[in-house]
Design goal:
This protein is an alpha/beta fold and 430 residues long. Helix content is 25%, strand content 29%. It has helices spanning 3-12, 17-30, 178-188, 223-237, 268-279, 284-292, 339-352, 372-376, 402-417, and strands at residues 34-36, 49-54, 58-63, 72-78, 83-92, 95-103, 116-126, 129-135, 169-173, 195-204, 209-211, 217-220, 245-251, 295-299, 302-303, 325-328, 356-359, 383-387, 389-391, 398-401, 420-423, 426-429. The chain has a nine-stranded mixed beta sheet, sandwiched between helices. Strands 8-7-10-5-6-9 form a six-stranded antiparallel beta sheet, sandwiched between helices. A five-stranded mixed beta sheet has the order 11-12-20-19-15. Strand 16 (325-328), helix 7 and strand 17 form a beta-alpha-beta unit. The radius of gyration is 22 Å and the shape is globular. 44% of the residues are buried. The protein binds cobalt (II) ion (CO). Cobalt (II) ion is lined by residues 78, 224-225, 254, 300-301.
Length: 430
């Protein structure tokens, strides 16, 4: 299968975190995974395949271990990307605008002058209750236009984009403020009066594309972190049968610090592990042994050295676009990788023939963070932070290399397939 095409399909189906979870769920269902509702009693069989959602925007899928003290092989990625959340419509200067609030740390200028779509969930009155309905109309609906260069000659001298003024989206010429709610109602299949709430994001409508003499470059919105979500999910679905449990997490809220009930700092993963253990008749001893025999790969994109801005990279460890999977290190533990987990990941990749590149922030720059070290405070499992090297992280359209996508998928599959068992002073690799 053409991996880049498969990734583009996954990302096109994932304009919002809720849709990313649905795109993952449909692949899981096709592979025989059974959906479970957190509000119901779960009956889990050894070796059974399950998944559950939280808030509709995070998902954990797993295959039950065969024994109560068996460890877990896990990977995690995030479902959210920087975006603009819509907080209604208003008429200004004779135009109808969608009023926005920024979500996460996007490169603001990259959102201007592009066709934008709307996606998310509408909460609809249903009988005496409330029902969530996902909407993502398949058409261009808004744009955030620049001012003309003639009217602002300083625009190329480093314009500061003001979120309250510059980043509101043009929805219609003229007064059509009511048409926003009407659109939501039409898409949700309800009366406007029955819309009780909504979580709607603007998203970039540009489809994934390849560039370069032989299509070596991949340009696509939301590569961070849907590329890692896609690669870890593919690896998870390809995991061979074994005594260990295998588990895959897709967390929302990473771009805003993970501190939500559905985020990596919430209780989602500990709750699922507890339920899975209880079904196996796990004792406290079993639980301690199982966690100590577990490993988790936290997968989130990393920065390749930028040919136009090489000085921004750590010159001693430049990560090359097309040079393989990134293994991230940070002495201050913004990344969860340790010497031990790095060694294990390298050993697995060496066997699989996947090139690995070490990433460090430039020593005088704090860099970003991800969900690995936060998650490790919730479940005390050894973790490594890895990812896809890319350029223009948090731009509306991001750039990566097709060769690295294939390498990332191969590394994730090898991670789930590898025979790793705790041994004295380390791990045995079978
Ligand atoms: Co990310």
């Amino acid at each position: 299968m053409n991996e880049t095409r498969d990734l583009f399909d996954f990302i096109a189906a994932s304009p919002s975190p809720w849709h990313a979870v649905q795109a993952a769920a449909s692949r899981l269902q096709a592979a025989g995974f059974v959906p479970l509702d957190e509000r119901q009693t779960w009956r889990l069989a050894p070796g059974g395949r399950y998944y559950t959602l939280r808030e509709g925007s995070s998902l954990i899928a797993w295959r039950q271990p065969a024994a109560p003290a068996a460890g877990w092989r896990m990977a995690a990625a995030h479902s959210d990307s920087p975006a603009f959340k819509v907080k209604g419509a208003a008429v200004k200067s004779g135009c109808t605008l969608l009023l926005t609030e920024g979500y996460g740390g996007m490169i603001r200028a990259s959102w201007l002058d592009r066709p934008l779509g709307l996606a998310g969930r509408v909460l609809v009155r249903a009988g005496d209750g409330v029902e969530a309905r996902l909407i993502a109309p398949d058409r261009d609906l808004a744009v955030i236009p620049h001012p003309a260069i003639h009217l602002d000659r300083a625009l190329n001298d480093g314009h500061k984009y003001d979120p309250k003024a510059d980043m509101q989206a043009l929805f219609a010429p003229g007064e059509a403020a009511g048409s926003y709610k009407a659109l939501l109602a039409a898409e949700a299949g309800c009366d406007e009066a029955d819309i009780l709430g909504e979580d709607i994001l603007l998203y970039c409508r540009q489809p994934g594309a390849t560039a370069g003499p032989a299509g070596e470059l991949v340009l696509c919105p939301r590569l961070d972190d849907l590329a890692c979500a896609w690669a870890t999910l593919r690896g998870f679905l390809e995991a061979p049968e074994k005594e260990e449990g295998v588990l895959w997490c897709l967390f929302d809220s990473e771009e805003v610090g993970s501190g939500t009930r559905q985020g990596a700092l919430g209780s989602f993963l500990p709750d699922v592990l507890a339920a899975a253990g209880e079904a196996l008749g796990q004792t406290a001893q079993d639980r301690r042994r199982a966690l100590a025999a577990s490993l988790l790969l936290s997968a989130d994109n990393g920065h390749a050295i930028h040919p136009n801005f090489p000085a921004l990279a750590d010159q001693d460890h430049p990560v090359r676009l097309g040079g393989g999977v990134v293994l991230k290190f940070n002495a201050n533990q913004k990344y969860a990788t340790t010497g031990l987990t790095a060694a294990l990941f390298r050993a697995v990749c060496q066997r699989a023939g996947v090139p690995v590149q070490d990433y460090y922030n430039r020593p005088d720059m704090p860099g970003g963070s991800t969900l690995g070290n936060l998650l490790s405070t919730r479940v005390g499992v050894p973790m490594a932070d890895i990812g896809l090297p890319q350029l223009a992280m948090h731009s509306c359209v991001e750039t990566a290399a097709a060769a690295d996508l294939a390498a990332l998928h191969k590394a994730c599959a090898a991670w789930y397939a590898a025979d790793l068992a705790p041994a004295e002073n380390g791990w045995a690799i079978g």
